[in-house]
Write a structure and sequence with these properties.
Radius of gyration: 25 Å
Helix content: 10-25%
Strand content: 25-35%
Distance between the termini: 71 Å
Largest sheet: 9 strands, mixed
Structural class: alpha+beta
Shape: globular
């Protein structure tokens, strides 16, 4: 195949999102203090990992890589740790930190020892040699946890860990304050390492972990505690200047979701008061990057950290983890790296510990956002759809193209017509390469990628697909024109080519400074009468725009450990307008649904704001996932989790904690609807 001068290979293990961001930036030399985290697994000859471990040990001794203390211990590479009874498995996932300067050479040398699964954003690590996660005894100074008591964890943006909804009365004699925290640890993730002298020996880690004693020391200030000032001081230490500091605002998504999942009045005697908590606060830069480029590695690391902390806390409690973040586009077959790795981590943890873990994902809110299209391309018959880039968009826009049979990608021909009428043909290109898209002045304003099949977790391969990346429409040195970019698609060969198009999420998170504006798809057949909302926004089945598979791309891994949650209205128990559809080729719908809106006029569920005594209302499948997390934890506490897990468990939860009777369910509601317990939406003012 002849390649044009605009066609070039992608970097190994790279994604179009990272590669296009790099192409848009001015070239700068990597600093000596930058480390790139990479999720990897051992290469093995059968089950023998000895050669891989030896190569890894050599790289550590040569200071080519750094590793987390926990990972070193798991691999048997920590000098002061007890020897492992069994050798490490090639199915275990761990992280290596490689200096950004010379990264490609180190990655090449390590390729015989490890398989690279996912790369993360570089972190600043000014120390020459660091160990990136401490291992204090979390059970220290902690009352025993009864076997049936669940550990509840949340991975989210902005965790108001000083809020009294996450405290209990301190009944000890001579207690220094009225309340003690229910948190055993909170990891405040950041893209830099922070020296932490509180423990011996001193350590450095990516962000900061606050343990029970740290939070209790703040709570001991009693009436003198200024929550906002405490968060502000932490943010100044952790975050770069100009970064969004969620915990300095009255509403934070993470605080609200955790309050729905496990918040309680500290003056009450309810059972939730005994639930221990863990939390990971995601870096604001990752949250602001809604396309998921920086978010997904942070979430994977957060799940690993939570499962490790749960093992340290005790050897019996079940764990319920809530993740209410999502991206739109993806394979939606369970092979997206975040899906495959989280599933692998949960199931492997259950096998190793003999304990139960449940992870709750929000199913998404994009049903009516025109993010998806589906077309069956007949040979040599072109079809068109418009991709609308919005003005005042400070973030790049991405569109994924995925044939139902990945090998058919080589048969796809694409013509891109700019808003000014300029036409550029994008013929097939080799796997793992990109072709630049240029404007009338010859400047690079976009790129077309062919991403080959690649491993995403042990035994899992993400299929090949194509991605269109377009520059921001404003705020960048070189911008793409806003307006309608017409995609004309055709197929070569004798057979039809079914293909789906999905716009990647690119909007601005609620509360953040305006950055991205969501691009969307359009076609003349997208304006039919919608009886549900009495407007003309119903896509015609004869056109390419569809609401099918409008759910989160995080929510398709099939595992009895994973729940996906849609949103229902409290007045009718029917699905909320925004709660997505599934499809025949992906998942048919969520595992179950939970009430997230009280009615047409009463939107959302009320729970705690960032600061003690405050309250806010929030709707969406995030709120529904918070309710579901609480009721799953309640089922563990009540002994109401029956075998077998999976859909039978979901149906049992609906029968036990759902409103009775329930109206006829739809595919958008899964096994049925859960209703929030009254205390889940109460606001405590103390």
């Amino acid at each position: 195949m002849m390649l044009s001068e605009d066609t070039a290979p992608m970097l190994p293990a790279d994604t179009p999102y990272l590669d296009w961001a790099r192409l848009q930036q001015q070239p700068t030399a990597a600093t000596a203090s930058q480390l790139i985290p990479a999720l990897v697994r051992l290469q093995a000859d059968g089950k023998d990992t000895s050669a891989a471990l030896a190569a890894l040990a050599d790289a550590l001794l040569a200071q080519e890589i750094l590793m987390d203390r926990d990972d070193l211990e798991d691999l048997g590479l920590l000098a002061d740790a007890p020897q492992r009874a069994t050798p490490p498995s090639p199915r275990d996932i761990f992280t290596v930190f490689i200096a950004a300067r010379g990264f490609a050479a180190t990655q090449s040398r390590l390729s015989c020892a490890v398989e690279f699964l996912h790369l993360g954003r570089a972190i600043e690590a000014p120390e020459a040699a660091i160990a990136l996660t401490p291992a204090p005894a979390l059970a220290e100074d902690t009352a025993p946890i009864p076997p049936e008591t669940p550990i509840v964890a949340v991975i989210d943006d902005g965790i108001g860990f000083l809020n009294t909804r996450f405290c209990r009365r301190d009944l000890r004699r001579h207690a220094p304050a009225r309340y003690r925290t229910r948190f055993h640890a909170v990891w405040l993730q950041a893209f830099q390492t922070i020296p932490m002298p509180s423990y011996s020996p001193a350590y450095v880690q990516a962000g900061q972990v606050l343990h029970r004693r740290d939070i209790d020391a703040l709570l001991a200030l009693g009436p003198r505690l200024e929550e906002e000032d405490s968060y502000r001081r932490l943010n100044r230490q952790l975050l770069e200047p100009g970064a969004h500091c969620s915990t300095e605002f009255g509403f934070t998504h993470g605080t609200h979701i955790l309050a729905l999942a496990a918040g309680a009045d500290p003056e009450s005697d309810g059972p939730v008061q005994d639930w221990p908590l863990l939390a990971v606060q995601l870096p604001p830069e990752a949250v602001d990057n809604t396309a998921g480029t920086q978010l997904e590695p942070c979430i994977i690391d957060a799940v690993r950290w939570i499962l490790r902390q749960a093992r340290r806390m005790n050897d019996h409690s079940p764990v319920v983890i809530n993740i209410s973040f999502a991206t739109f586009a993806g394979p939606k077959d369970g092979t997206k790296p975040i899906e495959a790795m989280v599933k692998h981590l949960l199931e492997r943890w259950q096998v190793k510990t003999g304990r139960q873990a449940r992870l709750v994902f929000a199913f998404g809110n994009a049903r009516r956002n025109r993010q998806s299209a589906f077309a069956t391309l007949a040979p040599q018959v072109a079809q068109s759809v418009d991709w609308c880039l919005q003005p005042d968009d400070f973030a790049p826009s991405y569109l994924e193209l995925r044939p139902l049979t990945p090998a058919d990608l080589s048969r796809l021909t694409l013509t891109l017509t700019a808003p000014d009428g300029r036409v550029q043909a994008l013929p097939p290109i080799p796997a793992n390469s990109r072709r630049l898209i240029r404007d009338a002045q010859g400047r690079s304003i976009g790129a077309f990628y062919h991403v080959g099949a690649r491993p995403s977790a042990p035994g899992v391969v993400t299929p090949a697909h194509a991605v269109l990346a377009m520059a921001a429409s404003t705020g960048a040195p070189v911008t793409a024109a806003h307006g309608r970019w017409r995609l004309t698609l055709a197929a070569t060969g004798p057979n039809d080519l079914p293909i789906r198009l999905e716009v990647q999420r690119g909007d601005t998170v609620m509360g953040y400074r305006l950055n991205g504006r969501q691009s969307y798809l359009d076609a003349p057949q997208a304006y039919g009468w919608d009886a549900e909302t009495a407007d003309y926004r119903q896509p015609d089945s004869a056109g390419p725009i569809t609401r099918a598979a409008s759910h989160s791309s995080f929510a398709t891994a099939q595992s009895p450990c994973i729940y996906t949650v849609g949103a229902a209205r409290g007045d009718t128990l029917g699905p909320c307008l925004y709660s997505p559809d599934g499809a025949a080729w992906t998942v048919p719908g969520p595992t179950l649904s939970a009430v997230a809106d009280r009615g047409t006029a009463l939107r959302g569920l009320v729970a705690s704001g960032t600061f003690s005594g405050s309250g806010r209302a929030l709707n969406g499948t995030s709120a529904a996932a918070g309710v579901a997390s609480r009721l799953i934890a309640q089922a563990f506490a009540d002994g109401q989790i029956p075998p077998p897990p999976g859909m039978a468990e979901a149906a049992h939860l609906v029968a036990t904690y759902g409103p009775q009777p329930q109206p006829g369910r739809t595919a958008r509601q899964g096994a049925g609807v859960l209703a929030p317990l009254r205390q889940a939406v109460a606001v405590s003012v103390v």
